[in-house]
Write a structure and sequence with these properties.
The protein is α/β, with parallel strands linked by helices. It folds into two domains: 210 residues, P-loop containing nucleotide triphosphate hydrolases (Rossmann fold), CATH 3.40.50.300; 262 residues, 3-Layer(aba) Sandwich (Rossmann fold), CATH 3.40.50. The chain contains 21 helices and 21 strands. Strands 11-10-12-13-21-20-19-16-17 form a nine-stranded mixed beta sheet, with helices on both faces. Strand 12, helix 15 and strand 13 form a beta-alpha-beta unit. The longest helix is centred in the N-terminal third of the chain and has 17 residues. The radius of gyration is 25 Å and the shape is globular. The chain starts with a strand and ends in a 13-residue tail after the last helix. 48% of the residues are buried.
Length: 599
């Protein structure tokens, strides 16, 4: 087993997740089986109880693991299925060691950070690295490990020490360290500064880890003189200093890394038994994807009505899924984040300007998505958005809580149940259209929801969402919820035109709704965003974008569900597009090949 450890310096959120994913993408395109591990130094057992403002969205895996959003990056880039054990936290490590101590496995010894905690970390990494994450069941050959936080944080010191020991445990030819560091460019001087990187590398080396690669993150391209300076002061050859500036899309990051010689370096450093790939066909799909993204001309505007819009990472997977569907159909996504609270009557009374601006944004959109969430705040705003989409034939997609608010709105305004609500927000409501699931509400918050991949069975008859899934009898999607639609109201809701076209295997839980006579009014109890991929967009999101650009009906009628719609307007073949991209890149200086935009 080969290991690549990715560490970070200067600041957090520097892009280690995308860099780690890019390493995996490059190696996978070389024919190597890859897996990933994300280490989070916090004491929480998992990310399940975090506020979205704390670390962004909570990403859910097939096995029900609630993990860091970086594992979503890994799955999307590598098209693999990770496990909850691929996310290591300080809490998990200490919990496992304390359980061993309670069982008497340390034979009366004093349990300490070194060696017991550090040994537990190394054993966990070795065990998880050998677990298959692909459909073919093959054992991974390379494990990419991202160490969260920054070097020098007291929270991560046990992990740093564990990997200092680990490099000798697995031998030098099986271990590579890549350090990602910020190279700022202050406006006052106008030049890139290397001192933060020098300090970070010095700290890393002081802890016993010497970086084999230094990856310089910057807003604008870093010149050769800066790379040579970092090389001189950080004891790394110039060709092992990579420069990754801000790019139009994250899909260009693996291409930029590959263009700087990552493949031959890794083959030599890790003694990989592969040949250098042919430049002509290497990463062809990614080059084609990057070309598509950069040359999209038509736009589609989607409004996301949510509760955590101040931090866009709160809806990272939803955003990516919308992008996947838009790119697939040849449209540039213009995403508007609308705080659900701003659509409420209370906001109109207190700050009318914000109220009318929010409604103006909603009305100008081509389609609307209402994602999941927890708590009462902003619920009435989400209900108003559902109502507006229903009455104005605006394409709509609701996810989890978005489905529940759609049902509540329909109950209030179509069934005339004026006090209809969810027991999550009003435990005394006379018409509980949404209720909790007793077996998943046991008093504890962490890991007690209905989590992970479960089967949804389609009802007989035609529906747009069923067609988008290829007319399958059932699908498997990931869930994360503690409340469900009350089965007692299903008959009345369906009689009024809200069809429940998907349910669980026992016919007890409602999974998908679709409104009769509406261009596209679909909501799902599951989270389809977790299984969306750049080259394989999620069907519910694909349907939303199709309906938003007025092409859903023709798409379904032409039976093109299994074929990729033409993306580039000049109808060039894939090989011609790849050739055009290559010619375009080589016609300009290397450092100017990719425009500047935030990752």
């Amino acid at each position: 087993m080969k290991y690549i450890l990715v560490t970070g310096g200067v600041i957090s959120g520097i892009g280690k997740g995308v860099i780690s994913s890019s390493f995996g993408t490059i190696l996978k395109n070389c024919g190597i089986h890859v897996t990933s591990i994300k280490i989070d130094p916090y004491i929480n057992i998992d990310a399940g109880t975090f506020s979205p403002y704390e670390h962004g969205e909570v990403y859910v895996l097939d096995d029900g693991g609630e993990v860091d959003l970086d594992l979503g990056n890994y799955e999307r880039f590598l098209d693999v299925t990770l496990h909850k054990s691929n996310n290591i936290t300080t809490g998990k490590i200490y919990e496992s060691v304390i359980q061993k101590e309670r069982r008497g496995e340390f034979l009366g010894k004093t349990v300490q950070v070194v060696p017991h905690i550090t040994d537990a970390i190394q054993e966990w990494v070795e065990r998880v690295a050998s677990q298959s994450v692909s459909e073919d069941g093959n054992t991974p050959e390379v494990c990419i490990i991202e160490l969260g936080g920054t070097i020098g944080d007291i929270d991560g010191m046990a992990f740093v020490e564990a990997f200092r020991q680990f490099q000798f445990r697995v031998k030098r030819e099986n271990f590579c360290c890549a350090h990602v560091s910020l190279v700022p460019q202050p406006r006052s001087t106008g030049e890139h500064k290397t001192k933060p990187t020098q300090t970070g590398v010095r700290d890393l080396r002081g802890f016993g880890l010497s970086p084999d690669l230094i990856i310089c993150r910057s807003e604008k391209p870093v010149g050769e003189e800066i790379k040579e300076k970092i090389s001189n002061f950080c004891h790394v050859p110039p060709e092992q200093v990579l420069a990754i500036h801000d790019l139009p899309s994250i899909y260009q990051v693996p291409l930029l890394m590959e263009s700087q010689g990552v493949v031959p370096f890794l083959i030599d450093r890790l003694q990989l038994n592969i040949r250098l790939p042919s430049p002509r066909n290497f990463m062809r799909k990614w080059r084609d994807l990057a070309y598509r993204v950069e040359h999209l001309r038509k736009e589609v505007t989607i409004s996301l009505v949510g509760k955590y819009t101040k931090l866009q990472d709160s809806y990272a997977s939803v955003t990516k899924s919308l992008q996947h569907a838009s790119i697939h159909l040849g449209y540039k996504l213009k995403l508007k984040y609308i705080d659900a609270c701003n659509l409420e009557e209370e906001t109109k009374q207190s700050t009318p300007v914000i109220f009318y601006e929010a409604w103006q944004e909603l009305c100008k959109s081509d389609g609307v998505i209402v994602p999941g969430g927890f708590g009462k705040r902003g619920i009435e705003g989400k209900i108003e958005a559902c109502k507006w989409c229903r009455l104005n034939n605006k394409p709509f997609l609701g996810i989890c809580l978005g489905m529940q608010t759609a049902v509540i709105e329909f109950g209030r305004n179509v069934l005339n149940l004026s006090n209809a609500n969810s027991t999550e927000f009003d435990s005394e409501t006379e018409n509980p259209l949404v209720i909790d699931m007793p077996e998943h509400n046991q008093g504890q918050m962490g890991g007690t929801m209905r989590l992970g991949k479960r089967t949804t069975i389609f009802t007989e008859g035609e529906s747009a969402i069923k067609q988008l899934y290829g007319n399958k009898d059932s699908v498997e999607e990931r869930h994360r919820h503690r409340y469900e639609v009350n089965p007692k109201f299903v008959t009345a809701l369906e009689a009024a035109g809200m069809k429940f076209v998907g349910h669980d295997e026992k016919l007890e839980r409602m999974e998908i709704i679709e409104l009769e006579g509406h261009p596209y009014y679909v909501a799902t109890q599951y989270h389809p965003e977790y299984l969306s991929r750049p080259l394989k967009p999620s069907p519910p999101f694909l349907g939303l974008i199709l309906a938003s650009v007025g092409k859903l009906e023709s798409y379904l009628s032409k039976d093109t569900r299994k074929a990729s719609p033409e993306i580039i307007s000049d109808n060039d073949s894939g090989s011609k597009r790849t050739s055009k991209l290559k010619t375009h890149l080589l016609s300009i200086p290397f450092m100017d090949r990719f425009p500047f935009t935030m990752l």
